[in-house]
Specification:
Chains A, B, C, D, E, F, G, H, I, J: It catalyses: cyanate + hydrogencarbonate + 3 H(+) = NH4(+) + 2 CO2. Ten copies of one chain form a homodecamer. With 147 residues, the first copy, chain A, is α+β, with helices and mostly antiparallel strands. Helices cover 44% and strands 18% of the residues of chain A. Chain A has two domains: 5-68, lambda repressor-like DNA-binding domains (434 Repressor (Amino-terminal Domain)), CATH 1.10.260.40; 84-143, Cyanate Lyase, Chain: A, domain 2. A two-stranded antiparallel sheet of chain A has the order 1-2. In chain A, a hairpin with a 6-residue loop joins strand 1 (111-125) and strand 2.
């Protein structure tokens, strides 16, 4: 993966300083997944947000500007990713894609869940049989426009 | 898409009888997405579940058996699906895959979210600015075994 | 291309009756491109719209129902289409994709042009040096949500 | 994306000087999308145009020459682009490709919309329900020659 | 290859009647390659041309109509064709593509050779060292429009 | 495209000295397309030819040797090239591949047009309706050997 | 694999009659691999050869004609074949392709081994350590033409 | 192609010293194709063989060690190679793959020709009608084990 | 997946009769995975084995013959299979491929594990923390031949 | 293959010091395949394990930290690997994938073998007919959750 130079810089600073994404969430007032997306250059921050991020990482303000640019998005090199953690999302789309489509259309009519007016949270659910990863996606339903 | 014959039969019966996935949820005692997965031959039902599904659709018990087989999974024809609703899940994986990976590893260590010991709910969130599709995934965290 | 059966039926009726897409536009009160999308099963019609379409084609009301279903979208067999007319749109995306992205971000900020809250018109521009095809797309700008 | 060196230079100068594509449009007397295409090395400028562009960006005339070369076109790395803004054009081609083909052939006969004798404008449509991106393409209709 | 039904019909009639493409050229007044393109559904004929073709093949006028439709073009199943005769054209593009591009741009400036306002002849050159296949392509040069 | 270093050197010299491919044709006594192929490392020159080429470009004899090596051929990065000028040759193969195959077999029997015992000329045809690019290919017909 | 209908017919007759490819070699006076190629529709036979083949298989002369047509060649469905016996040839090309290229160019100069003026034999070499498959290919060397 | 550094070194030494693969065959006592495979890092040499190779090329013993490593094999960048000489082997597999499979199974039963217990020779056959490239492959027949 | 007709027949008989693969193992005297491979047409049986299989499934001897043919192997439609159970083997190859290669070369030298002189067992390991699937592969080590 | 820098460092140290994977197994108290996976950055070590590995290789503790990071997994460049040793695992999946699936489902019901709660051993089986590579995989069976 061709990780952007700024991403490498910030991740190294984050590691060196021992800052977690949760710490960044507190410092910036935005969700940790969104902040990780900014760092991986999948989302763009406002000047204020960018400065808070680099400050929290102990970096000077000159690192803020690249975080404000609208990035060319898509963080993966491969059409079908080989990393097992990421692949599982491909598998979920393959296995549950049609069932989800059927249920969404029944509940909402013809349209889609927006991936732009969209939030995604990652939570840890403690469970005696083994902790669980909970992922909550919320996307605005966009009905197809007719013209 | 090569929809299985049994899937076509059941969807036609469902439409003819005006049964919703939510009705099936009530009748079977399982989540509607899981039931849709059984109908699209992405999951296998027990004999009791299969019979409840076909009965609720007004079909005879001979339709239950194909729902009990372990299917060859993967409901999509295309590596990158063209249907906009389904594609958005590919986009989410592409854009948020690395950020999610970073957050999950930080919270849980090296491992993955299971897509087998896994549940997925689709909910409608009413919102004055436009209703939202809420998708909740919960998968057991599987730490990498060392040996 | 695996054209849906209903599409073949409607196109045959359209040809037999000598109805143009422009005639359908008048009869249905919707744009001809949208109506063509319904016929090619890329968009779903309301019951009233579906009935107007099949009536205008001289077909009985039993042909209306398939037009009301939410289709599995994506009308092309090939990742990169070979048909020269359709390929040109791929070429435009390849050649002008980055310039458009730069201009849109400059005018609107980070976000996309919706392909769902979206209209597309095809017009004939008479020109002494050779008529021109004018295509006007209008999609709602969707700014990336932060969370 | 392997952005050409000259592109990086010009974009950096543009950013440093705070020049917009609209400013370049005024300075050069050409549309901003076309100018962006020259900068992204998808189109070639005349000597005069190239000089106007680099001057407007505050750069010396030695930067003009690379803009005059006929570039190897195609600005994207991926067959199906992952960037959501650019992908939407792929989606439009997939969903509306066949309907557009049907309408164009009905209006013009057998042939294509040229992507060479072609212009493309990006406009902002203010709209109380959310601003819209308007894209207007105009390509000469090229009828198939018979021989 | 999914050869169209009408193509199979016409080729069978051609074989049964012992008509050559050269005979068709004489009968129709169009080049044999163009006529073969019509038969393989890569080009569309006028009513008069279509009738001449089917008559020359000893078929009734009801076979003329499918030849008048604007076909979905692209006669090959494979991205890189395996048939050795056809593959050689892929090889020529791969090996000589860049040199041709360099020479065309030097002679004509930025633009392309049209594949629409285009003719293609296949000739047999007798040669004592072995006959040669001569292919002559002539396409209108289309300069890139600036706007 | 990973252009060979020697290619870049020679093209830069050619541009600096203002030499055209036609000039090279005169100086070397070989066709300009073949010379461009040598420069793009798709063909190999004899020592004499290589020396004439580098001399004509004002370069020392040490540049001649790389032109004499048998190159790994194939000048394009992409399976389906995105550059519009080069793509048109792919389109011609897709659209006219089967018709050409049919005509060649009828004229010559089973076999192929050689792409090795092969020449290719690019000519400018002046035409009041717009100049045309004429490409003449001549390849030895190779009949399939039986054994 | 979409085996041609005629191939299935002939292979069934061959099996029913217990004829080996070696028997066909004797009956037709051509190598068994070439005859297998005719049967798999990868090569075309003369009328006399075709008749000898079908006669040797105990079939009527009406089966001869399809063997005389110039087939669309390429007998495999997959770009990289999965069948282990056939895949090994892909592996040989991958592993030994560059070494063979180096040796051929050193022995012959720039050019290729023809796959058209070409023969291929399969022989059984008895060996106490395990019999060996011997494959002998002989293709005319074709030097690149200069022009 | 990402040629290994050691390969480039050895090929340069080979060229500078004017050593042929045939010379290496004499010096090392192994076939020239195998030696070329070692140089292209597709095969691994013993210490003695490696030293003989580098000595014959006039290089110091420090170049021997990389030739002794088990390489990651597969010498081509592309799934379907574009180089015409190498492509012909792909074509042979495509065209003659099924016929060879049929003949091998008939002669040997179910199993494959090994590409590991395998030798490959390249010979020049002088022929008044044009010299021929003769390639002899010999691979142990491996019958499928049953268990 | 295009399951062979004979496979469907046998699987239906197996289900109808309630025969397990373990039962077939007892009846045939071969491992159940190998028998499943014969049924899925990935391996070929002797006449005696084939008859035992069909007899154990309660079918007549006419079903035995197709099981004796050498099949075209490769049981999956997709390059990267979507079925989660089968995909895990792709994942294992991706993640552990290089480590396995390193260990095998260290233990055995340059060569491979045969997939032909090869056996594969599937066993159930009872485990209080959850049963485990144990897969044991045993393939003859094939050292690379030098020549 | 883009081998990570740390991997190259460790493999060089391992070679220089003459340490085998078996030696590392003794030193670290983990299986050699798992240790190789850590070195190839497919698995992450604890601090203690990482230090033991680098110490055993004679390297300073500063090399331990990169081995503790959760890597982006997938060690191969190619979708279908060309290296013969690694490819055989792809072949096994292709040929035995469906039979394994059938047997696993029969023994365990619907679910998969985990590739995360998973171990893999490589052993050398001495055999007078040729040593064998034995690979033992053990993965927890994960039944599909219903919800």
């Amino acid at each position: 993966m061709a990780i952007a130079e700024i991403t490498d810089k910030l991740l190294a600073a984050k590691k060196a300083k021992g800052v977690t994404f949760a710490d960044l969430e507190s410092a910036v007032g935005r969700d940790e997944v969104w902040i990780a997306s900014v760092i991986y250059r999948q989302a763009s921050a406002s000047e204020e947000e960018a400065k808070k991020i680099v400050t929290a990482l102990g970096l000077g303000p000159e690192y803020a500007e690249p975080l404000m640019e609208c990035p060319l998005k898509g963080s993966l090199d491969q059409t079908i990713p080989t990393d097992p953690l990421i692949y599982r999302f491909y598998e979920i789309m393959q296995v549950y894609g049609m069932p989800i489509k059927a249920v969404v259309h029944e509940k909402f009519g013809d349209g889609i869940m927006s991936a732009i007016d969209f939030t995604l949270d990652v939570e840890k659910e403690e469970d005696p049989k083994g902790d669980r990863v909970k992922i909550v996606m919320s996307g605005k339903f966009l009905p197809y426009k007719k013209w």
